[in-house]
Amino acid sequence: MKQQKNYFLLVLILGALSTISPFSVDMYLPAFPAIAENLSTSISQVQLSLTSYLIGIAIGQLFYGPLLDKFGRKKPLYAGLWIYIAASVGCAFTQSVDALIAMRFVQAIGGCVGMVAAQALVRDLFPVNKIAQALAMLTLVIAVSPMVAPTLGGYLTAHFHWHWMFILLAAICAAILFACKWQLPDGADPERDLSLRPWKVAKKYREVLRNKQFLTYILVGGIAGAAPFAYIAGSSDVFINNYGLTPTEYGWLFAFLAVAMIGATQLNHVLLNRYSNRTIVITALCYQLVVGILIIAGVSTGFFNVWMLIGMMFIFLTGHGLSVPNAAAISLAPFAKNAGSASAMMGFMRMAIGGIVSGLVSVFHNGTALPMVLLMAGCILLAGLVLMYHYHTTGELHTWRKKGPGLSPR
Fold first, then answer.
1. Domain 2-397 belongs to what topology?
2. Does pLDDT of 99 surpass 90?
3. Which residues form a coiled coil (predicted)?
4. Could you give the angle at the alpha carbon of 233 between the alpha carbons of 167 and 279, nearest 5°?
């Protein structure tokens, strides 16, 4: 019973660390129209504050990977969380969209440490054959944030000023920092002989990227995982301005769609008892592509009303809870050592691609849902092509249906 309690507490803390950035993204989505009005700017300009946040996450993770390996997990973690708290307070007092974009970048530089540290600690504290299950549990905890964050953000926008969201984010991070200090294990020992010289760091990342399994699955997971970023960037404008939902209603809608990912992570536990990680990944991508094409057809022809679009989006987003944790598990499996650098590179790729896709939503913004849904389906198509190319060139194409638990061959 004590072991189960410790496992639950560990997953909860690691999940909380992982949710810092998703919570920071999701909470202020219902406030996009209010922020645009208050700062006398456009929705597309406010969307760039999301893009800057994702770019900050991508860049920051590259620095935290070597730091987590060099100094251990705790010291860089504490430093990043303090940066996040300070930047969140800065966001709360911004008076222009340019300042908000800049402060969101700094906020991301601090907050992204939680994602890297959590993934590295999973590799430190769980055996290889339990990584996928642990990551699925983290995904479950992370998936709760889209249920809580936008709903809370909607109420804050409706009843208070949007600035208060960033004060609340600072307070939440302070609570997580306290929990990490008193309850989180240290993880892997510091690698004192590890050099932090830029060319040495670049060499380590190059070594990580030379692993074909790692490179393939971070691309697959990153590209497929960017589809929800297209949804995140465009959904507030689509549902509030196009379909007439209030910020509070949008918050509840976002929470409802998050259930898709939560249910999928629970299904993933069952599927892993019968199928390999790679089988689940490619199957999820196939059905997401079919659903994505149907969504494009329904939106472009005007056939979908708001409820039909919501239903199809729900089905589409279930794939995120299946493909992403399994792709991440296959990516990290080869690294008993350098897990921090591998986690950082994986996070960099995922957020860099997500930042590009969210930026494209702003670039192609035309007042309709079409740019959002086209980019969502396009991400799945490209991820599937990368995976099929890998299977074809490695001779694994004929084995992807193979039943049985465990990771793909290294």
1. Growth Hormone; Chain: A; (1.20.1250)
2. yes
3. none
4. 110
